[in-house]
């Protein structure tokens, strides 16, 4: 081998060893192997202390709001149910009153008993008995007031004192005279309450009451104690008297039982246990006072025998 070839061979080896590392660095597997692989770092999230407190408070507020909403909804549902039940009861009562109204029969045994102020305003004279202006003429007024309280009212349309005069009978015969008329009506129809209305002979101080700056005619309820229905009639009378006093204190003078000499002792109340006699005011009571009291009687009847009974 010549010297030139030896030099060329030596130079080739040197070049090979010099270039080999460079070529090796460009290869894919060597590059991947030479690049360190970084493990993923566990990142820890750190919240500020204020954010944690706010988040806790927010969660508590949400919980409280949810509970409050739940309670409010529950209360509203309860109130709605209560109102609906009340409305249904009222509707049922109204429908029941329409189908089966509480019926009252009015009669006026002493039909021409009158009130001096009313007679004087009508005719200019003072009288405690009058053929035209008397308690019997209050029948329409009473019926209207009773109707307002849900009461159906019938009237035994007999002017008893007028008929007594025509037949030559005297005042004490009044109850015996009206008895067959009443008995016939009770056979034909049934009533929840029968009221015989009279005017008391007592003076103004005993028959007048002022309540809330308004004057009223006081009433008294009379029960005859000499018949079999006595206790039944008394029960009706006491219930009505108490109800009236509950509306206007002391407007009722109470229940008076009568028996013995010089009294009727029955007042035809033996014909039905639902019958009572009411002394409506006295000789000195005015029309305004009577109207107020009649309205109270209607309300008390409703409270005692209609609303209270249905409850």
Task: Please tag this protein with its features.
alpha/beta, 8 strands
The string of secondary-structure elements, in order, is HHHEHHEHHEHEEEHEEH
Structural class: alpha/beta
State the distance separating the first and last CA atoms: 140 Å
Which residues form runs of ≥5 with pLDDT under 50? 29-37, 42-50
Give the topology, please.
Blueprint: H1 3-26, H2 28-34, H3 49-99, E1 102-107, H4 116-123, H5 139-148, E2 151-155, H6 160-166, H7 174-188, E3 193-200, H8 204-207, E4 208-211, E5 214-217, E6 219-224, H9 230-247, E7 252-258, E8 275-282, H10 287-310
Parallel strand pairs: 1-2, 1-3, 3-8, 6-7
Antiparallel strand pairs: 4-5, 6-8
What is the compact description of this entry?
The protein has 311 residues and is an alpha/beta fold.
Describe it.
The chain has 311 residues and is an alpha/beta fold. 54% of the residues lie in helices and 15% in strands. It has helices at 3-26, 28-34, 49-99, 116-123, 139-148, 160-166, 174-188, 204-207, 230-247, 287-310, and strands spanning 102-107, 151-155, 193-200, 208-211, 214-217, 219-224, 252-258, 275-282. A six-stranded mixed β-sheet has the order 2-1-3-8-6-7. A two-stranded antiparallel ribbon has the order 4-5. The radius of gyration is 51 Å and the shape is rod-shaped.
């Amino acid at each position: 081998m010549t010297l030139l070839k030896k030099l060329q061979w030596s130079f080739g080896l040197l070049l090979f060893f010099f270039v080999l590392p460079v070529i090796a660095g460009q290869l894919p597997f060597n590059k991947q192997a030479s690049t360190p692989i970084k493990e993923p770092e566990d990142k820890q999230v750190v919240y500020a202390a204020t954010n944690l407190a706010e988040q806790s408070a927010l969660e508590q507020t949400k919980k409280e709001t949810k509970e409050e909403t739940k309670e409010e909804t529950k209360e509203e549902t309860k109130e709605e149910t209560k109102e609906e039940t009340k409305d249904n009861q009222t509707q049922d009562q109204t429908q029941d009153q329409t189908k089966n109204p509480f019926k009252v029969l009015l009669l006026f045994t002493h039909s021409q008993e009158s009130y001096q102020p009313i007679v004087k305003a009508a005719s200019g004279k003072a009288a405690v008995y009058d053929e035209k202006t008397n308690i019997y003429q209050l029948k329409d007024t009473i019926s209207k007031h009773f109707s307002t309280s849900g009461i159906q009212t019938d009237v035994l349309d007999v002017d008893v004192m007028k008929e007594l005069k025509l037949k030559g009978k005297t005042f004490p015969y009044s109850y015996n005279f009206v008895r067959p008329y009443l008995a016939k009506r009770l056979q034909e129809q049934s009533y929840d309450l029968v009221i015989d209305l009279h005017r008391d002979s007592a003076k103004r101080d005993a028959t007048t009451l002022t309540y809330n700056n308004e004057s009223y005619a006081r009433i008294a309820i009379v029960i005859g104690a000499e018949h079999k229905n006595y206790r039944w009639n008394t029960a009706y009378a006491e219930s009505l008297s108490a109800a009236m006093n509950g509306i206007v204190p002391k407007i009722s003078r109470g229940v008076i039982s009568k028996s013995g000499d010089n009294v009727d002792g029955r007042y035809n109340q033996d014909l039905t246990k639902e019958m009572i006699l009411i002394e409506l005011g006295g000789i000195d009571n005015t029309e305004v006072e009577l109207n107020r009291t009649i309205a109270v009687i209607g309300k008390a009847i409703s409270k005692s025998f209609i609303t209270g009974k249905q409850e």
